C-alpha cells in the first residue's frame, strides 16, 4: 500500500505541480498538489470497487433428495420431493424435468406432429323403398377449394375408406370413427375436409336415406398430447348445394341443415326434382398445420434471490410418477459480473 501511495505522490507532483513551461507560486503549487492527490485517490478507489464487483463461480451442490407422502389443500395424496443443498449462491433457478420444464430445452423447443386426426359420429336412417345399394356419403379432402362444388368434386380426394363407414342398410346405431390425415398436409397450404352427400335419380319412390354427423373434430397429436383445432360444436359446417334444389321453391326450406350439434343430409322430395342427381357438400374451415411446432424455450422457476438467506432445501410436488432430471442453475451476480454453475440430479417418483 505504501508503495502505491508513493507512486501517487510522485505522479501528482510531476503532473500537477511541475508542468513544463508553467511557473506557479508556492501557494498554488501546494493547492494543485492536494487537488491532484484527491483525484488520484478517487480513481484508485474506483478501480478497487470494480475489482470487488467481479464474482466467482458459486460454491453450490445438491446433496440429495427425499420423497415423502403428503396431502394437497383438498386432502388428496401427493408426493413431495425435498432437495437438499450445500453451499450458497446469489440466485438459484429450478427446472423440474417435467415436459416444458427441462433444462435441455432452455434455448428453445421444437416438436414434431405425430398425427392429425379427424373424428366424428355418424348415423343413418334409410327410408322404406330406398335402394340399399346406394353409397351416398363420402369424406373428401383438398388443398384447393375456391368456394364452388360439383357432383364429381374435381380436385378433391376421396378418403371415405379411411373411416370404415358401412352401407346405411348395415347399421342402425350412432357410431364413432376416426382416421389420421397427416399425410395429406402440404407445408404452407390449407387443407379442407368435407362431406359429400349424393341422392341419385328416383322415379318409383320418393324415399331417401338421412345421414347425420355429430361431434366432428380435427385434432393435432404431439408428445404433449392432443389439441383440437376444429370443433363442430364451436363452428357449424357451411353447406354448398349442387343440382336441382327443393329450396328454390319459396315455400320450401333447405333439405340439408347444419348446426353446431348436428349436420343432417336429406334428399329432395319434390316430384320435379327427384328424377335428377343432386346433393350437398359440408366443408369445414381450412386448417394449416406445419410439420413442426416451435414452442419457444422452457422456463425455470426462481427459488432464491440475492436478498434471500442461504437455501438449505427446496420442496417440489410432481404430478405424475416417473423418472425426471431435475436441474438447478446457481448464479452469483453483480452489476459488472456474473458466474453460474449447473447442477443436475436424476430422481424417481414412485
Automatic annotation (TrEMBL):
InterPro entries for this protein: DUF5017
Please name the Pfam families in this protein's record.
DUF5017
Report domain DUF5017 positions: 47-228
Q: Tell me where on the tree of life, at the top rank, the source sits.
A: Bacteria
Question: Under which name does UniProt file this protein?
Answer: DUF5017 domain-containing protein
